[in-house]
Every structure is written in C-alpha cells, then in structure tokens.
Design a protein that fits this description.
About 30% of the residues lie in helices and about 20% in strands. By secondary structure, it is of the alpha+beta class. Strand 12 and strand 13 form a beta hairpin.
Length: about 775
C-alpha cells in the first residue's frame, strides 16, 4: 500500500511539473510565437491560405512554391510574390549533381519545414541541401548548406518572362508583369562563383552575358567542397539600380540570423498593438495568426521616396507619404480597413491617400476597387472604396482630401458601368439603374446583348443593387460632410432603393427585369448561373437577404418586426442545403463554411451573426459568434473556411475574439458579440488604450450576464467609436447560460440609418 501511495505521489508531482512547465512556456511566448502560418493551408474548396513570409505591409513577400500544404514538391525557391495569392516572379534553385538532370526550375522533395512570419527553413531532401531564409521590407537573404563532398554546387536563377544579366558575384534583371509593369531584382553572393553563364539546354554557356525571354535562366557554379552559400538580394518596381539600393539600405551584411531577429522584433511590436490573455492557448494562436494575416496587404511600394505607378506607367515622387497598393476592397472594406482605423490610423490615412492618387493617375477619375501592383483590375461588383473613405472620415481620420475622394467615388459609381468585372463607361443598364433605382435582371427567355456585361460574371442584379445603394449612402455621408446638401439629399434618397427589389410576399431580395417583374420560379437556395450570378454573386439569396448594412433597423421592419426577424435568421441557419455537397458546390465554389444556408467562408456573411442584436436578442449573437469561431476558425490546416483574401476573413476573427464588430462601415459604432479572452488590451492609434475584460472568464462561458463601460452600467449591445478612442475599459461578467434580458430593450439596439415617416408611407414596391 505504501509503495502504491508513493507511486501516486510521483505521478501527481509529474503532472504538476508538466502543468507548471506548460504555464511557464505560455508565459515566455511572445505574440509572434503564436502565429501559425500553416492555418488554412488546405482550402475547403477554392484557394488555400498560403504561409507567407514577410514583414508587415512590405513590398517583399514570399511563400513556398507549391499548390498547397498537400504538395510534396517545391518548384525552386521563391524571391518575390508580386500579388496576393500569386506565384514567385523569380526562382532560385540550388543544385548538386549531374547537370543533364537539372532544369531551369528544380522541383524538390522537401522535409523539416519551418515557417514563421520572419523566417523560413527547409530541407531539400532529394539533394541533401538545407535552406534558411529571412526577409526585410524590400530585400531578403538566403543561406544554403550543400554537401561538401560533391564536385560542385550550383545556383540556377530563373525568370518566367524577362531578362537576366550577370557580372562577378551578382545577377540582375527583370520580369514582365501585366500592364507593362516590371519587377526588378539585384542578387549577389558572398562567395564569388568559379563561373557564371547562360543556362540553356542543360549546359552552361559562359560566353554569354545575358539571357532573355520566357523561362530564361542563368547559372552560377561554385567549386567542390562548398559547404555553405549566402545570397542576398533586393527587389524593386522601379529599376535594377533601385533594387540594389534597397538591398544595400536594408541588409548590409550576410548575417541571416540578424535579419531574422530584426524581423521578429518588428512583428512583435506590430502584433502587440493588441495584447490578449486567458487560458485558451489555441484561441491565442488563432487570434495572432489572424492579426498577422491582416498585415499582408496593402503593401507599401515607396522606394527611397519614389514609386512606380501602373496606373499611368510613370515613376513618381511620393512627396513624403508612402504609396500603397494591392487591395481587394470588396473583401477588406468590411472589417480590415475598420481595424486599421483603430490601431493603424496613420497607415489607413496613407492608404486612402494612395487610392486617391491612383484615381488621379488613371485616364478617368474613378476610385479603384481592386488596386494591384499592375493597376486596377476592376474585379467583383460595386465600388466600396467609398465605404472605406466614409468610415474613416466618420471615425475622425483627416489625412486625405475628402473633396477629391467625393469626386473619385462619385465618378466610379455614376460614370463607370455598374456591371461586375468591367471598367467600361456607364451604358444602358446604368441608365436604367439611375432612372428606376435597381439593376435589372434578364427577363425570362431574354438573351444577353449588353456589351458591358461580363460573359462569365453576368449581371448579378441583386448583389449590384444592394452593394450600390450602400455605396450611395456612403457617398451621401461624404457629401454632407463637405456641406453639399443637394447631393447629400440625392444620394441619401437613393440609398433606400433596396426596397425596390424586396419581395413583399417572400421577404427576400429578389431580382427584377426591366418591366418590373420579379424573376419567375426562383429558388433562393439555387439561383441561376454559376455562383448564382444571374441573381446574386458567389452566395445565394439567403445570404444576400441581410445585405443592407446601413439600415438593419428598416430591414427588421420589412421582415415583419423583431420576432419575425429573429425567426428568419434562425431559419437560415436551420434550413438544409437542399442538394448533395458535390452538386451544390458545382454551382457555389465560394459558399463554404456552411451552417444551414449560411456561409462563414464568404465576406458578405460576416456581419450576419451580429444582427440578432438589432432585434433585442443579443444572447443569440453571443451564442452564434462563439460557435462559428469554434467551428470554422481553428488551429489546423483547414482552419479558415474560405478564400481569406489578405485579411478579408481573418479581420472578422480579430474583432470577434475581442468581443465586438463593425457591422456598418460609415456609422462610427461597434456591435457587441462575446469576448474570447480574459483580457484584450488595444493600443489605440492615438496613444491611448482600450481594454476589454471578461470576469468569471472561461473558454466555455459564452454569455454576457452584465456589462460596464468605464464604470457605468452598460445595457446596450453597442458602443461608439468615440467611446472606444477615448480609451478605458469595457467590462463583462460572463456565464455559461444566457441572460436574455441583457441589452433586450428598444433603447439597447444598435443604431441604423432609418427611413423618415414620409418615406415609410410610400409604395415601396414601385
């Protein structure tokens, strides 16, 4: 018996020791240590989230050259990814062995991979080569360990379509991108090669001094006994000389670990703008990985005070303000830009300024909606740059020209066609929208003849109408701020036109043709067209049913009141898919992260879980947000439910884990959800801090029992941006069961932009 008790004591002490070790390990972890770039590396359906190595918002980004985490080969080593989700513009391929077996880009089997935001390491196990990498903002460094017993070591340098030249221990050149844009590179090795030449037909041509064309490559040869090679490089969108300047400014020696440590410190400083604490270590990993994702874009392309603009094909002086590009505003206006308003207001000012400068450089003064390194690609629908501007201005940002923003935004909305994925001038459909207040669908049996309409993307009439009336509301806010009462009133009036396509019987937003007829035989689960594009876009009628972010209060009334509104939200989550997954996803590739008819994997759904608050049932929002985070945003390879789009989805996670969300960009307020941490301390951009505290905290205590804001009893399910930016504390008492009375009264409901009594009295279905 004594021996048994002794064994039990040893086990108890062992368990206690393990617990203490885990606690100490957690205490020693810094914010960047929680980042797991592998989260989401296997997609649910379309595009994976790549393990990108970069510094915050930097020009230089790289990620392993493979399809996704399941790929068992790397296609060379990356040097720069020039657009989000793109492939590397150049490749570096270390090689040892028979040159007759080599190619312009080597495909490696690999193992022992380590990916951190500031560091990459991998074994190229086919050749016994080990690789380390660290980035700076516009330059990077590789350290490559070879097998010294081999007779020679090689570096093959490739451009997919461009020109390369070499001299001594350096290689330089460019690669052509779209729209006459070039990315330049300058690379040098610490060790001088024994010879360098053009790499063609599996042989070295040492007499050549340059190569040009598609898949052009050169090769450096180093003598046998080479144990390690270090290569550092700079990149530029201006010139080879500027790429060299960028390298020499940022990486002054060949110390890779020093570069990595500088990058680590930068990431820690950045991620610590929001400090979270609590027992749930997995939640911290999800949180800091999500926050890291929001810093992939936009990227700063200013280089020593100049930048190349693909919007007019010229190099410009940035006049002391960094120039940013690469943003898919259809995704990021919802939460990514609002997050920056809070923690990076100067950066957000500069980004909006960059949008306006780009608009002024284009042939037409139209606000961009998908600005990229190669120009504005005009993807998706609507013109949500106006929402970015209206939200920033409503929340106090003043670092941009509001009058110029109004002109550019108005031009994009009224002069350019509203037809998705088009940069053509307004046409017959736009005239109809202006006159009738909705974007028309095709009539039954009608063939498309309008030249502005994209053959694949179709008209998307409901998505275009709802997106544009919201844009017009944002435009009315900007006009009002400028004192332009006439245009403010005009666009305010137009912002109610969502009512034109609201079906009074089904209480869904329903496409109409030019004769005013609702589309016949429409199943809201399966609207016609790939992605439902003959009616909606990427998601079905159930998702777009809630897409009136500026006037949720009126939507509640259109649905029949608060109880009916809640019932319909619940019905959405509880309505079966209606088809087998293969058949459904054959139509809807983007409608992922499914709960009933809801899609957590597509950005138009992100505000929907918060809408219960508008009907006085905040506890349902708390339950739903908690469950969606747990179900779909996880610390695993499929832990992001859709196309993440550089912060588009993960900004939802950042806000939601803190405990609130910007349902309506343009209204300076936040709707409360449920906190995932015991404390979250936000370092506000104005130097103050705002703290969210959860008493009686537990990862399972989902429901708010009571709240205080700066010591005052708080019984509302929302608070203002001004209250946030003043700093202070939002305190919650949490529990395992809901307090259904908290924030249930009419005075607790978040604000909306309501109709006047006169407007409510009109025939809304004309």
């Amino acid at each position: 018996m004594q021996q048994k008790n002794s064994s039990l004591r040893k086990i108890s002490l062992s368990l206690l020791s393990a617990a203490v070790s885990l606690t100490l390990a957690a205490q020693n972890k810094e914010a960047v240590d929680y980042v797991n770039p592998y989260i989401g590396n296997i997609s649910h359906l379309l595009v994976p989230t790549y393990p990108t190595v970069h510094l915050p918002n930097s020009l230089l980004r790289v990620c392993p050259n493979r399809e996704d985490y399941t790929g068992n080969q790397l296609a060379g080593l990356p040097l720069i990814v020039t657009s989000h989700r793109g492939r590397s513009a150049f490749n570096l391929s270390p090689y040892q062995g028979d040159l007759q077996q080599a190619d312009n880009v080597i495909h490696y089997g690999y193992d022992n991979e380590i990916v951190k935001p500031y560091y990459y390491k991998v074994d190229l196990d086919d050749y016994g080569i080990q690789v380390q990498y660290a980035p700076s903002h516009q330059s990077g460094i590789y350290e490559i360990d070879f097998k010294p017993e081999m007779p020679a070591a090689y570096l093959i340098f490739n451009t997919a379509n461009g020109r390369l030249e070499w001299q001594g221990n350096s290689i330089s050149g460019y690669q052509l991108l779209d729209n006459n844009t070039r990315v330049y590179i300058y690379l040098e090795t610490e060790t001088r090669p024994s010879r360098t030449g053009a790499w063609t037909e599996n042989r070295i041509n040492p007499s050549a001094t340059g190569v040009e064309g598609r898949n052009a490559a050169c090769i450096m040869q180093f003598p046998g006994g080479t144990k390690s090679l270090k290569a550092r490089y700079g990149v530029s969108f201006i010139s080879v000389e500027q790429a060299r300047n960028n390298l020499q400014r940022e990486i002054k020696n060949y110390d890779l670990q020093q570069t990595a440590q500088v990058g680590r410190a930068i990431w820690n400083q950045t991620l610590n703008k929001i400090q979270v604490s609590g027992l749930d270590e997995t939640a911290k990993t999800v949180f800091y990985t999500s926050l890291y994702r929001t810093y992939e874009r936009m990227i700063c392309i200013s280089e020593d005070g100049n930048y190349f603009s693909a919007y007019d094909g010229q190099v410009h002086d940035d006049l002391g303000r960094p120039f940013y590009t690469d943003d898919w505003i259809w995704d990021t206006y919802r939460a990514t830009h609002p997050l920056r308003v809070i923690i990076e207001p100067q950066m957000e000012n500069d980004m909006i300024h960059s949008y306006l400068v780009a608009a002024q450089q284009m042939p037409k003064l139209w606000m961009p909606n998908f600005p990229e390194v190669t120009g504005d690609s005009r993807r998706m629908n609507s013109n949500h740059g106006v929402a970015m501007v209206a939200d920033a201005y409503a929340k106090g940002l003043r670092g941009f020209d509001l009058a110029a923003a109004f002109r550019a935004c108005k031009g994009a909305i009224t002069e350019k066609t509203l037809a998705p994925w088009s940069s053509k001038p307004a046409g017959v459909l736009d005239k109809f929208y202006k006159d009738h207040g909705y974007f028309p669908s095709l009539a039954k049996g009608e063939t498309e003849t309008v030249p502005e309409v994209h053959s694949w993307e179709r008209r998307q009439p409901v998505a275009v109408t709802l997106g544009t009336v919201y844009d017009e509301w944002c435009l009315s806010l900007i006009a009002a701020a400028l004192g332009n009462k006439e245009e403010a009133a005009y666009f305010k009036e137009r912002s109610f036109n969502y009512r034109k396509i609201f079906h009074p019987e089904t209480k869904f937003f329903h496409p109409k043709d030019t004769l005013g007829n609702f589309m016949e035989d429409l199943d809201y689960r399966f609207p016609p067209g790939i992605g439902g594009r003959d009616a909606y876009d990427e998601s079905n009628g159930w998702v777009y049913r809630w897409d009136v972010p500026h006037n949720i209060g009126d939507l509640v009334q259109l649905m029949g009141g608060k109880q009916a509104f809640v019932n319909e939200l619940e019905r959405m989550y509880n309505t079966p898919l209606g088809k087998g997954r293969p058949d459904f996803h054959h139509i809807f590739g983007d409608h992922t992260g499914i709960v009933g008819q809801f899609s957590m994997g597509n950005e138009p759904s992100m505000h929907i879980p918060y809408l219960y608050n508008y009907a006085g049932e905040a506890w349902r929002t708390q339950k739903r947000v908690h469950n969606l985070l747990k179900q779909w945003f996880r610390n695993d390879l499929m832990g992001i439910p859709g196309d993440e789009d550089g912060g588009g989805l993960t900004s939802f996670v950042v806000f939601s884990q803190i405990g609130f969300y910007p349902v309506t960009p343009g209204l300076p307020m936040y709707v409360i959800g449920t906190p995932a941490f015991e404390t979250a301390v936000i370092q506000l951009g104005n130097g103050k801090t705002f703290e969210v505290v959860a008493y009686n905290y537990s990862p399972d205590n989902t429901f708010i029992q009571s709240a205080r804001l700066n010591g005052k009893v708080w019984n509302k399910s929302w608070f203002t941006h001004e209250e946030l930016m003043q700093g202070g504390r939002l305190e919650f008492v949490m529990g395992k069961h809901p307090n259904k009375q908290w924030a249930a009264g009419n005075d607790a409901i978040p604000p909306s932009f309501q109709l006047s009594a006169a407007q409510r009295s009109r025939d809304i279905y004309r």
